[in-house]
Write a structure and sequence with these properties.
By secondary structure, the protein is an alpha/beta fold. It has a single domain, classed as Glycosidases (TIM Barrel, Alpha-Beta Barrel). The protein contains 15 helices and 21 strands. The strands form 5 sheets. The chain has an 8-stranded parallel sheet with strand order 9-8-7-6-5-4-13-11.
């Protein structure tokens, strides 16, 4: 595995080379649950959305780097990525510097029987996310679906919502396996289910009630950042040529659901995704949304290469073109941009393509100062759902791809962004921004074990810095107002 193996070795010295019991003892002794309060990144209270950015309570721009947790919950009998007592999986994410998870919940898990919520499922979700918060990990709650329902080779809606949508689950004509995504447009049953969902007030009411019930369970968790109302929404047979679907059906659902959620969780952010068919050519129009604290959250994949498991065109060009379109749409809507999913499957060809694609996307996100969540973090059965295999954890429970995914990035910026970059080969990280001096520092996450095992040195245009080794945070305080530059290199 080359560089990946070295990254794994570095982390294993901290976490995985010791027995699980020893890990738990160390966690209790070191007070890992108090990390959030002891770092310069800052914790709750909540965040403010203004001028196309997310700001923390200290007035700094807040950036988030996360993972989706997790794809394996699509097939798990209880729709959970792992059990609440398996806290080591949160510890690993904390150790790798991820400060957010996009956590998948499923309508089928919440309301398996029409009108009846599964309290056991909801209780486990609550406990899982409490453990995330203890480690300072923020949560975007993702109401997830693919192909409408697992009864159509996907996930999401319960069986009763399939029958009521007019599709027979045993004659669904869906594509399974590697080419599952084609069923979004080629399966009559999938298209029919989506079409009928958007036209059924009753189904949409139950969908809303299910997600609001999740919010009721999580309303007291200050690390729940907000709610992604509908993963990769599909218009079914509804047209979107001039935004009929997005502005006439999708946006009203978002606003209806988020309005109800904010009655129980008033400070939550709302994450809105475009039509999945028009992912980078969204027809959302300025003024469609009549509420504040919204974040534009499309996904960015090299769809053709990922489906074929073979790179057809240079991925960096595809990612940059998609990202430019997403930036333009977010600015038009007056929202911060957030990439809710990106990634590439393992086993890509030619050899080394997966790592290169991941690095390409992170470079795009870094240059755009764009918060994000990698797909994905499954801790078992990593390829069980339609032969997907994207996880940072392999089938044997060992991390992989850490050199590409665990890298320096700015977490809190006391100023206005100018440029940011990281070269995984030379290990040079560079940050430029403008700002004034003040009490709140800029904070950069520096993964010493994964990227700088021999140490690092820092170059500054002005001011001073210190490194908080316990949290891997470099704290930078400028010495003057104006332009600032920070560079990190190998020692």
């Amino acid at each position: 595995m080359g560089e990946n193996a070295r990254g794994w070795y570095a982390v294993s010295r901290k976490l995985i080379a010791v027995p699980v019991v020893a890990i738990l003892v160390l966690v209790m002794a070191s007070g890992i649950h108090a990390f959030a309060a002891g770092t310069e990144e800052g914790g709750p209270p909540g965040f403010v959305v203004r001028d196309g950015e997310i700001y923390d309570a200290q007035g700094r721009i807040a950036y988030f780097r996360g993972v989706n947790v997790g794809g394996n919950a699509k097939v798990a009998p209880d729709h959970l990525p792992f059990q609440p007592n398996e806290t080591q999986w949160w510890d690993y994410l904390k150790a790798w510097g991820f400060n957010l998870v996009r956590f998948t919940v499923f309508w089928e898990g919440i309301e398996p029987v029409k009108g009846h919520f599964d309290r056991v499922y909801l209780g486990k979700v609550k406990r899982l996310l409490e453990e995330a918060g203890k480690r300072g990990i923020y949560v975007m709650v993702d109401m997830h679906q693919d192909l409408y329902s697992r009864w159509l080779h996907g996930d999401g809606a319960p069986a009763w919502a399939v029958w009521e949508a007019g599709a027979c689950p045993y004659f669904n004509f869906s594509f399974g396996g590697q080419f599952w995504g084609l069923a979004n447009v080629l399966s009559p049953a999938v298209v029919r289910c989506f079409t009928n969902f958007w036209r059924s007030d009753d189904l949409k009411l139950h969908y809303k009630s299910a997600l609001v019930e999740v919010a009721r369970q999580l309303k007291d968790n200050p690390y729940v950042l907000g709610y992604d109302v509908y993963n990769e929404p599909n218009p079914g047979g509804n047209v979107n040529t001039n935004g009929e679907y997005e502005n006439g059906l999708l946006a009203p659902l978002y606003q209806d659901v988020l309005s109800e959620i904010r009655k129980v969780d008033p400070d939550s952010l709302g994450f809105v995704e475009p039509d999945s068919i028009d992912m980078h050519s969204s027809k959302f129009t300025e003024g469609t949304f009549k509420m504040d604290r919204l974040v534009y959250a499309p996904h960015n994949y090299d769809f053709i290469s990922n489906t074929l498991r073979f790179q057809i065109l240079p991925s960096d060009q595809i990612y940059r073109q998609n990202h430019a379109s997403d930036v333009a749409k977010a600015r038009q809507l007056g929202m911060p941009l957030w990439i809710g999913e990106f990634g590439a499957p393992w086993g890509m060809n030619p050899a080394g393509t997966h790592d290169r694609m991941l690095d390409d996307m992170y470079r795009v996100l870094e240059s755009g100062f764009t918060s994000n969540a990698l797909w994905d973090y499954s801790v078992r059965d990593v390829a069980a759902w339609n032969e997907e295999d994207y996880s940072l954890i392999d089938q044997n429970g060992r991390p992989r791809g850490l050199v590409e995914a665990v890298r320096p990035w700015v977490r809190r910026l006391a100023g206005s962004p100018v440029s940011q970059s990281f070269d995984k080969n030379t290990k040079v990280y560079s940050l430029e921004f403008t700002g004034v001096t003040g009490p709140q520092p800029t904070v950069v996450y520096v993964p010493e074990a994964e990227q700088y095992p021999g140490g690092f040195k820092v170059g500054l245009s002005d001011g001073s810095w210190e490194y908080r080794k316990e949290s891997n945070e470099l704290v930078y305080r400028p010495g003057r107002a104006g332009a600032h530059r920070l560079t990190i290199r190998q020692r």
